[in-house]
Design a protein that fits this description.
Blueprint: H1 2-10, H2 21-26, E1 30-36, E2 42-47, H3 51-54, H4 56-59, H5 75-87, H6 98-105, E3 118-121, E4 130-133, H7 135-147, E5 152-164, E6 169-173, E7 179-184, H8 190-195, E8 200-209, E9 215-225, H9 258-263, H10 272-283
Parallel strand pairs: 7-9
Antiparallel strand pairs: 1-2, 3-4, 5-6, 5-8, 6-7, 8-9
Helix pairs in contact: 1-5, 6-7
Length: 284
């Protein structure tokens, strides 16, 4: 649950170095008992601090991300909402990244024995919707992992509009006015970033994309004054590719390889004109 809370508040599920104190407090979820339910079900009794109490210093500050949970929510609720986004295969979601998808993918290990599924509440309000965790969720997470483009190294120029020292996060406005979120990988660069607030900066780092291919954030490795930077860096490069799911064949299935396996049956006696027409059709 730590990664989902960090994703919701910082915009990244990974953290360089030791986790901050507020994150350790927020993720302090404890099972205090259980009650036998109907059939073979079991109701777990859980204690978890409200995020507004665990991370009080953060909730006193202006928010940068629209994903920040309500102060009365807990880590359990944040985890449930991230799982719901994965289950619904929302490819534009800001509640998960590749790191969190891999964690959900590995959750299938929980359901390899007698445990069939788990339901956890989306919010702290009584009667809130429940999100189901099961092998199907793990399978959908694997599919989304395969579809999400790999991060790529970028250099981006924009005006530094907002920063938050406590979470190493910032926001820049590109030349076209589009906001882009960023997370500093090294907190030691925060003082330099603060001195550049309101100025044009050059960011060097990795662009991280959603499953849809749209930009999620930039993991900034270095920031510099960018007044003389080229306009070529005024836009974030598009994702280079989408991952594709590996093709799995059933035992005994007739598998074609080589050119014929990729395109289908390779032409035999077709004329040059017919081959050119087929190539044009393939290109769209």
């Amino acid at each position: 649950m730590t990664a989902s809370v960090q994703m919701a508040i910082e915009g990244s599920s990974a953290h360089v170095g030791a986790p901050p104190a507020w994150l350790r407090r927020a993720a302090d979820v404890r099972v205090t008992g259980w009650t036998e339910g109907d059939g073979c079900s079991t109701l777990l009794h859980v204690e978890a601090p409200q995020l507004g109490d665990a991370a009080e210093e953060l909730y006193e500050q202006q928010t940068l991300w629209e994903t920040r949970p309500a102060p009365e929510d807990t880590a359990v609720n944040v985890f449930a909402r991230a799982a719901r986004e994965v289950r619904s295969e929302n490819m534009e979601s800001s509640l998960y990244d590749l790191g969190l998808l891999r964690r959900f993918s590995n959750s299938h290990r929980l359901f390899e024995r007698k445990l069939v599924s788990m339901e956890i509440p989306d919010s702290s309000h009584r009667g809130s919707a429940m999100t189901m965790l099961d092998r199907d969720l793990s399978s959908r997470a694997r599919d989304l992992t395969q579809q999400t483009p790999s991060p790529r190294q970028v250099r981006v120029v924009g005006h530094l509009d907002m920063i938050r020292h406590s979470t190493r996060t910032f926001e820049v406005l590109l030349e076209e006015g589009k906001p882009v979120r960023g997370v500093l990988e090294d907190s030691a660069q925060m003082d330099k970033l603060r001195s550049l607030l309101g100025q044009k900066i050059l960011i060097a780092g990795k662009a991280v994309y959603r499953a849809s291919g749209s930009l999620l954030r930039i993991d900034a490795q270095a920031v510099e004054e960018g007044g003389s930077a080229s306009k070529l860096f005024a836009r974030v490069p598009a994702a280079m590719e989408h991952r594709t799911s590996p093709v799995r064949f059933r035992p005994g299935e007739n598998v074609r390889r080589g050119v014929s396996g990729f395109f289908g049956k390779w032409p035999g006696d077709e004329s040059d004109e017919e081959l050119h027409a087929m190539l044009r059709e393939m290109r769209g």
